[in-house]
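User: Some background: our group keeps a shared notebook of sequences we're curious about, and every so often someone picks one and asks for a predicted structure to add to the entry. Today it's my turn. The entry only has the sequence so far, pasted here. Could you supply the structure so I can complete it?
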Amino acid sequence: GKEAAMRKRLGNKGMTILELLVTMAVLSLLGAMVLGLVGAGRRSSTRIQTDIADDTEARTAMSLITVSIRQHDATGAIELVNVGAQTERLKLRANPFAISAEEREKGKVILFREGDDGMCTIYAVDRTGEGQSVSDPVDVMPLADIEPIAVVRSVRITEDIVDNSLVYNIVITYGAGGREKTLEQSVTLRSAIAST
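Assistant: Of course. Here's the predicted structure to add to the notebook entry:
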């Protein structure tokens, strides 16, 4: 009836309302699928960027720790301070064989500070100035003026003796959101083990 008359009048050019509605529905579905894929790609990209940033932080922390230990490979130059399951500081004496006790206590301290958010911020603090010591309490160290080296979940450093050599085992946990990762490395010192 009416549809045939309408087509005849338009010369079979154009579309009916039903055809337009079906076309709009199909295009809407295709658009929704494309938007879903774009959103998934964006979330994936963000997750990858976060993982790369976390990996970089952990590797930076590991590099600082291992290089510092290797640079201070001398008997009595390294002192590890652990509190419970967390490493608090790594004392690195610049000259453990100095004649004066004050000079023996100068060097660098790597501090591991756990924040309220559960993350561990890592600082490298120079303690070679007049009247400074690697054994100074943290509250006299100007952490507010120092740029953190890295921020990770946790750092645990332990000492072992393997084949008459002192070995530092470093375990760094990093990442968030149920995607925690662990970075581990051991550093074997070449110097003689300090006699007790």
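Suggested note for the entry: Residues 17-71 form the longest helix (55 residues). Strands lie at 78-83, 86-93, 107-114, 120-127, 150-152, 154-162, 165-174, 181-188.
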